[in-house]
Design goal:
The protein is of the alpha+beta class. The protein has ten helices and twelve strands. It is globular and about 50 Å long. Bound molecules: aspartic acid. Aspartic acid binds next to strand 8.
């Protein structure tokens, strides 16, 4: 009797083992070798009437620069992970975005940064949260993924790890941007907005993210942010949380999110899109649409995602007025967009 039970267990385990192996095999299958890269610089209340032509141009230039640098990595046979780190680092260095230099201020008047990265072939991932001295948090997330046995490091420990890894360390003053500081002053006491209305009022997210498909058919996704203005008590949003703000799996897709992080965490937005493709056989666009245009607003959340699948299909779906975004693929020409009403179909 006992022997039979043990035999049955062994059989079940070996079947499950086969399934897991099959899934892993499937996940590693190279897709098309056509490279592609999609990026975002944050979603939110981004309206034409509030934007000067100079500022608009500055965003297009910065997005193009990030796209072209990442694409060059892919064209030269580099990995999707390297392309993601390259594109995000460029946006982190630009004060236009809420990541790295130009990050928003916390309630304590400090910059606390979050970032994550994931590789869709191996499902390896790395993240840092609440770091204060790392010039490029995405590089620290990458180091966590490749040089440690962990997935997420936080606060001083993460800063310390980055230093030991030889990453560039900066003073808090490096992150300062006067426009961001003004936003902070408007939302902090004595303006006395409660946390909910403060978050609502801001409505400008500005996080950055990238998703890439390399010549081997491997997908990677990454996200980097300063979080939300006036955040308190060491608040961490979705951006460094694998499955919420970032996810990548070769058999489905790679996703990077931007928006009101609390809602993205509750819905595990990035993983939900991937899971709908994997379990229900939805297309990338249908899965992204279902999560961003239906589930997210139903809960009261707003924001958007960028994503791509292993065939190089791209989604840039958002339910806000705008999302800084762009993509580049086979023909090698970067396309960038800001507002909701821009016609993407005409841009291919
Ligand atoms: N999702 C980010 C957060 O909640 C904010 C953003 O996308 O800008 O921290």
């Amino acid at each position: 009797m006992v022997t039979r039970f043990v035999l049955a267990l062994v059989l079940i385990n070996s079947i499950n083992g086969c399934k897991t192996e099959k899934l892993n095999e499937e996940n590693k299958k190279p897709g098309r070798t056509e490279i592609a890269l999609v990026i975002h610089g944050g979603a939110g209340t981004i309206r034409r009437e509030e934007m000067s032509p100079e500022r608009e141009k500055a965003y297009h230039v910065a997005l193009k620069q990030a796209l072209e640098a990442g694409y060059t990595v892919l064209e030269n046979g580099g990995t999707s992970v390297d392309a993601v780190v390259t594109s995000i680092s460029i946006m982190e260095d630009s004060p236009l975005f809420n990541a790295g230099k130009g990050a928003v201020f916390s309630h304590a008047g400090k910059n606390e940064l979050d970032a994550s990265i994931m590789e869709g072939n191996t499902l390896m991932a790395g993240a840092v949260a609440g770091v204060a001295t790392i010039k490029n948090p995405i590089k620290a997330a990458h180091a966590v993924m490749t040089k440690s046995s962990h997935v997420m490091l936080t606060g001083n420990g993460a800063d310390q790890f980055a230093k030991e890894q030889g990453l560039e360390i900066v003073d808090q003053a490096y992150f300062f941007d006067s426009a961001r500081y003004q936003q902070f002053l408007e939302l902090s006491p004595p303006a006395k907005a409660n946390e909910k209305t403060a978050a609502r009022k801001e409505k400008k997210f500005g996080t950055v993210g990238a998703v890439a498909l390399d010549q081997l058919g491997n997908i990677a996704a990454g996200t980097s942010t300063g979080g939300m203005t006036n955040k308190k008590y060491g608040r961490v949003g979705d951006s460094p949380i694998i499955g919420a703000g970032t996810y990548a799996k070769n058999i489905s897709c790679g996703v990077s999110a931007t928006g009101w992080g609390e809602y993205f965490i509750r819905l595990l937005v990035a993983h939900d899109i991937s899971a709908m493709m994997e379990y229900a056989g939805l297309s990338l666009e249908a899965a992204a649409d279902s999560v961003i245009m239906k589930k997210l607003p139903a809960l009261g959340g707003d924001g958007g995602i960028i994503a791509l699948d292993r065939s190089g299909n791209i989604s840039m779906t958002f339910n806000t007025d705008g999302m800084y975004r762009g993509f580049i693929r086979k023909k090698g020409e970067a396309k960038t967009f800001i507002y909701k009403d821009e016609d993407l179909s005409a841009s291919e």
